[in-house]
Amino acid sequence: MPGKKRSLCSLLALLSSTCTQAGVAADAPAGQTLYPAGSQQSFKGPEAYFTGEVQVDLLFPGNETAHYSGAYVTFQPGARTAWHLHPAGQHMIVTSGVALTGTRDGNIIKFKEGETVWCPPNLDHWHGATPNAPMTHLVITGSLDDKNVIWKEKVSDAEYDGGKPPRTKAMPDVQVLTPKQQGIIPIAAFTANGDQASLKTALQAGLEAGLTVNDIKEIQIHLYAYVGFPRALNGLATLMSVLEERKAKGITDPIGAEAHPLPADKSSLELGKAVQTQLVGKPVSGPLFDFAPAINQLLQSHLFGDLFGRGILDYPDREIATVSALASLDGVDSQLKAHMGIARN
C-alpha cells in the first residue's frame, strides 16, 4: 500500500514534485541537506499526461520554508506535456537542446540552452521538445496548498505545430547548393575512390569556387573516418602539390579558419551523442549497436565528437562530403542510405 501511495504522488506531481512536504521531518536539523545524484525518484512520463517519450528525474522536494521542488525532464523529439497549469507558477531552464512552450492563445516560445521561461500561476500551457531533436530542461515548480500541477487534456498535433501545415504533408525545404558546396562534391568523391588525377582538377575548381585551404584539408580529414587513412593521406598529398603549383604561378589561396577546441564542459562522448542525435533526429540504437556497443561509442566520441566538434565545416557541409564519398564506393549502400536521410534533415 505505501508503494502505491508513493507512485500516485509521483504521477500527480510529475514535472517537479515529490509529495512536497510529506517527507520532511518536523525536527529536521538546521544544517544543509545533500540530495545525492540519483537519490530521488525517476520515472517515465505517463501516457495520460504526455505525448511521446519523456523521462522525469526528480532532484529535490519542497520543504517547510521553501515551497518549491525541482526536476530534470527530458523529452525525445516531438514529445510534449498535456495542457496543465501550476497554482504557484514554474520556472523552466533549458540545459540541453531547444524547448518549446505554448499557451492557449496560440503563442509558442522557443528557447535554447541557458535560457529560462517563467510561467505565472494558473496559466494553461504545455512544453516539450522540437520535432527533430531531444531536449532537457530543469523545472522549478512552486506549491500552493500542497498542489503544484493541475493536468488537463492532451495537446493536439495542430496545437503543437502552432497552426502550421501538418508535418507529414509539409513541402520539403528545397535549397540550391552554394558554389562552395558544389565544390565539395567532386573533392570528396575523388578523395574516396583514389583518382588523384581527377582530384587534382577538382581541387583547382574548389579553390576557384571559394573553398579555403583549411576547408579542403578538413574535407579530407573528415573523410578518413569513412574511407580510411590511406585515401585521406593521399588526398592531402595531392592538395599540397596543387597548392605548390598555384603558389609558383603567383596564386595565393586563403588559408581560412582554424579548428577550434572542443567545449570545455563536455567530453567527446557527450558532445558526440548530442551531435549524432541532432543529425539523425532521434537517439541511435539497433541490433548492430546492441551486438557491438563499442562501435557506437567510438562513432559518438571520435567521429561525431572529435571530428564534428572541430568546426571549419558546418554539419551540412560534412554530410555533403560524406554522401559524395560513400556514393563513390561499392558495398556501402546501407551507410549511404542512412547519410542521405541525415542530409535531408
Give me the secondary-structure topology.
Elements: H1 2-13, E1 42-44, E2 50-51, E3 54-60, E4 68-75, E5 80-81, E6 84-85, E7 90-96, E8 98-103, E9 108-112, E10 116-119, E11 125-129, E12 135-142, E13 150-151, H2 157-161, H3 179-193, H4 196-208, H5 213-227, H6 229-248, H7 268-280, H8 287-291, H9 293-307, H10 315-327, H11 333-344
Antiparallel strand pairs: 1-3, 2-5, 3-4, 4-12, 6-13, 7-10, 7-12, 8-9, 8-11
Helix pairs in contact: 3-4, 3-5, 3-6, 3-10, 4-6, 5-6, 5-10, 7-9, 10-11
Describe the structure.
By secondary structure, the protein is α+β, with helices and mostly antiparallel strands. It folds into two domains: 2-21 and 33-162, Jelly Rolls (Sandwich); 179-260 and 311-344, AhpD-like (Up-down Bundle), CATH 1.20.1290. It is 40% helix and 18% strand. The protein contains eleven helices and 13 strands. It has helices at residues 2-13, 157-161, 179-193, 196-208, 213-227, 229-248, 268-280, 287-291, 293-307, 315-327, 333-344; strands at 42-44, 50-51, 54-60, 68-75, 80-81, 84-85, 90-96, 98-103, 108-112, 116-119, 125-129, 135-142, 150-151. Strands 1-3-4-12-7-10 form a six-stranded antiparallel β-sheet, with no helix packed on it. Helix 3 packs across helix 6, helix 5 runs antiparallel to helix 6 (229-248) and helix 7 (268-280) packs across helix 9. The chain starts with a helix and ends with a helix.
Throw out a few tags for this protein:
345 residues, alpha+beta, Jelly Rolls, AhpD-like, 2 domains, six-stranded antiparallel β-sheet, 11 helices, 13 strands, 40% helix, elongated, disordered N terminus
